[in-house]
Amino acid sequence: MLNKLVIFGVGLIGGSVALALKKAGCTAQIVGVGRSSESLQTAIDLGVIDLASSNIKDAITEADLILIATPVAQTPAILNAIKPHLAANTVITDAGSTKNDVLSCAKEILGEQFSQFVGGHPIAGAEKSGVTAATADLYRNKNVVLTPAPATNPLAIRRVRELWQACGAHVSEMPAETHDGIFAAVSHLPHLLAFALVDEVASRPNAEQLFGFAASGFRDFTRIAGSHPEMWRDISLANKAALLSEITAYQKELSHLKQMLEQEDGDGLHALFERASVARNGWAKTKKL
Amino acid sequence: MLNKLVIFGVGLIGGSVALALKKAGCTAQIVGVGRSSESLQTAIDLGVIDLASSNIKDAITEADLILIATPVAQTPAILNAIKPHLAANTVITDAGSTKNDVLSCAKEILGEQFSQFVGGHPIAGAEKSGVTAATADLYRNKNVVLTPAPATNPLAIRRVRELWQACGAHVSEMPAETHDGIFAAVSHLPHLLAFALVDEVASRPNAEQLFGFAASGFRDFTRIAGSHPEMWRDISLANKAALLSEITAYQKELSHLKQMLEQEDGDGLHALFERASVARNGWAKTKKL
Questions:
Q1: 8 Å CB contact of B221 and A190
Q2: Which 3 state secondary structure label does DSSP give A148?
Q3: What are the backbone dihedrals phi and psi of residue B80, each rounded to the nearest 5 degrees, phi first?
Q4: What confidence category does residue A35 fall into, taking pLDDT thresholds of 50, 70 and 90?
Q5: Predicted TM-score (pTM) of this structure
Q6: Cβ neighbours for A67, distance < 8 A, ≥ 6 positions apart
Q7: How many domains does chain A have?
C-alpha cells in the first residue's frame, strides 16, 4: 500500500500505472507533475490522478514512490530537480527503454541516494500516446524488467516490484547491461531495420509506385517504422554499443544469405528459412500472440 | 462470361477465384485439377468447383480459361502436360509471385501458343492455406498485376483482366521485369530481412531469453518470417537478380545508419527516422491499412 505516488509525465505509460493502481485500490494519493498543465487537467478530469502540481518540492514531500515516465531525455533534469528535496525513505523508479544510461545518470546526480533508485522498463505496446490512451489493463500479463545495481536498497526494489505486480505485470530483475543487450536484439535492431527499409524505399524515384503495390506483409514489417523519431533517436544513442554489435551481427547474417542467393544454394536458403519459420511460429504459439 | 474455367491447384488462391466467380455468377462450369483427390473432393463438397478431373486432356477440352494456381515450381510440368491438348482459343494464366521466370518457361514450352499465355499475380494475403480457407472476397479491392509480353494476344489479356475484375480486384499491367523489381523491393526483401533476423536471434545461446522478452514490435516485424520456407526459396531463386540488387541497396542504407550511430549523429538519425515514419504513416493512411 502506497500513501503517496508521484508521477512525472502522466501520458500513456504513467497514466496507465495510475489507473491500474486505482483499480487495484492500493494507492491513497496519486500526484501528477508535467510540463503541460492542460494535459494534467485532462488527467484529473479523467480520474487518472488526484492532484496536479508544478512545485516539485511540494509534490514529492512524503512520497513513498516517484515514477519518472517522461521521454527519457528529460530524466537527468528531473533527477536534478528532485535531488535537493528527496527524503531518505522515498523510492524513485523510471520507465525508460534503455537502462545503462539511466543508471549512470542517476548515480551521478543522486550520489549517496542512488540506493533509492530502481531502474525499470515496462514492456508494453504504445500505438497511441497521451493520457487519453491510458488504460488500467496496459500492463496485465506484460513483462516489466527491473535493473537494480549492487548499491540499490533491497527495500526499494521490493517497493517497485510490488508497484508493477499490482498493475498485473510479470516482474523480472537483471543487470542493466543484460537488459540493454536483450532489447538491442529484440526491439531496437528491428526498429532500425524497419526505419532503414522504409527510408530506402521512400527515397526511390518510383517510391509512389512501390508503395502502391506494398501489401500486408510490408504493412506489418514496417509498422514499427511509424514510431516516434525523437524517441528512437534517443534510444539508439543511449544503447549505442549494444546496438552497434547487433547491427554487425545482422550484417554478417545478411551477407551470408546474399551469398547463398548468389550461389543459388537452394538447400541453404531453404534451411535458413525453415529454421526461422519454425522458431518464429513456435515463439508466437508460446506467447499466444 | 466464361463457359468453362479450369483451375490447376484448388487451394486458397484458386479456390477463392472459383468462389468469387460463382458469387458473381459469371462462369458456367469450374473444373478443378490437382495432385490430391482428397482436397479436390473437399472443393466439390464445399461447392468451390463443379467437377474434379485427373485427365488433363478431358479437363481442358473446350476451356475458355486455364488458371494455374499451384506452387510455382509445378508450373513447367503443368504447361508441358497442357501443351499437346491446348486449343487455339483457350487462354492460360497463372498466379505466381514472380513473373520473369514464368514467362520464360511459358515461352519455351508453349512455343507459338505463348501468345495465349498471360502472366498474373494477385496480391492477396495468405495467412492460411488450402481450399478450406478460400473465400469469395479474398481479392476484393486487392491489386492484381498482369505481365503480358509483346507477343501476347490482346484478347487473352482482356479475358484474364475480366476474370480478376469479376473477383473485385484492381487490375494493372506492366512488363514482367518491372513487376519483379517492384516486388523484390516491397515484398521479397522484407521477407528475407525478417527470416534473417529470426534466424540470427534463434541461433544465439540465449535465444530462449531473447524470445521471452520479445513483444508486439518483434511480433509484427517477424510475422512474414513464419512464411512457407519452400515457397520463399523458390521465389528467392526465381527473382535472384532483382533481389540481389535490393539486398545491396539495403546493405548500403544499413551501413549508412550504422555510421551515423558510430558517430553519434543524432540529427542524422532523427532525420532518417522522421523521413521513414512520415512515409510509413502516410502510406498506411492512404492504404487504409
A1: yes
A2: coil
A3: -60, -40
A4: confident
A5: 0.92
A6: A5, A6, A7, A8, A14, A17, A93, A94, A95, A163
A7: 2
